[in-house]
Amino acid sequence: MTGRTGFLFCADPLRPNRPDPQAADEVAAVRAAGGPVALVDHDALLAGDAAGAVARVARGSGPYWYRGWMVPSGRYAELEEALSLRGCALLTGADDYRRAHELPGWYEVFAALTPYSVWCEGRPRDAGELAAPLGPGPGIVKDYVKSRKHEWHTACYVPELTDRRQLAAVVDRFVELQDAFLAGGVVLRAFEPFVRGGEARVWWLDGEPVLVTAHPDTPDRRPAPPLDAVREAVRRLGARWVTTDLAVREDGVWRVVEVGDGQVSGLPAGADAGKLFAALTAARPLR
Q: Least packed by Cβ within 10 Å: which of 22, 27, 90, 179?
């Protein structure tokens, strides 16, 4: 391998020799930092053709961060293997990706900082039984990776988890809408009321915060959360490039709403991509 840290961006489906135009600012930031750029065919990767997906990646190049659209954990493992066969390496291995990307992987180390959660693989046979440890009160339905918060009342929020009929209806609608994109299984989370003001997205590299931005859904709101407790949890998690979304609860306590692998987390409009990608380009494989 070359030893220079590069980035694997998704190719433009219409012009496969060029990066996806939605990543233009990030590609420019990487190049400004002196990082190599290679292209991955995201559609081929999702279709199970990992070798075809990395066909444009030069043999013996890297190491690389992946930076692009979300990839199911199983497909990410195939990406890692296909790159290895070309003499290349990912700085985030498949195990670390799954641990940061999916709630069952990160929940234990963040349990004191995030809403109480339970989950199962696939569709639950009995949503009421799954929800029982959460007790009475409202809850949220999601999968291992994402919720459908834009269908709040039909496929996300449950006003009372002990109302088995309503819980089952929301879970069924969520699973129906996710369809083939259901990631891992169903997660039920205790609902915690947060104050209006948006979430903060914190970008971590090797256990240190590199950048604090707004959440992409509220790019005009930029809260400034305390990070000491979250830093300790991120370090315990052990994945290298991680994001945490934080919001303040109505009682004034900051809570972790979501954890994610930084490679597939979105930057909000107006964020300082240069600072983040300069730090990532300077990163090296851990020995």
A: 179
Specify the pLDDT at position 2: 57
Rounded distance, CA 223 to CA 252, Å? 13
- List, in sequence order, every residue forming a beta bridge with 211; answer none if it has no partner: 203
Read off the amino acid at residue 136.
P
Long-range CB pairs of 229-232, under 8 A, 24+ apart, other chains included: 229/112, 229/113, 230/113, 230/202, 230/256, 231/204, 231/207
pTM of the shown model: 0.94
Residues 6+ apart with CB under 8 A from 117: 103, 107, 187, 188, 189, 190
Q: Phi and psi (nearest 5°) for 9?
A: -100, 155
pLDDT of residue 287: 65
| Burial of 14 (C-beta count, 10 Å sphere; 0-12/13-18/19+) | exposed
CA angle 104, 146, 12 (to 5 degrees): 120
Average pLDDT in the chain: 95
CA distance 138 to 189: 9
Tens digit of pLDDT for each residue in 78-135?
A: 999 999 999 999 999 999 999 999 999 999 999 999 999 999 999 999 999 999 999 9
Task: Give every residue of the chain whose pLDDT is below 50, as ranges.
Answer: none
CA 268 to CA 271: how far, in whole Å?
6
The Cα 205–Cα 65 span in angstroms is 12
**Cα 49 to Cα 35: distance, rounded to the nearest angstrom:** 26
What is the separation of C-alpha 74 from the centre of its chain, rounded to a whole number of angstroms? 15
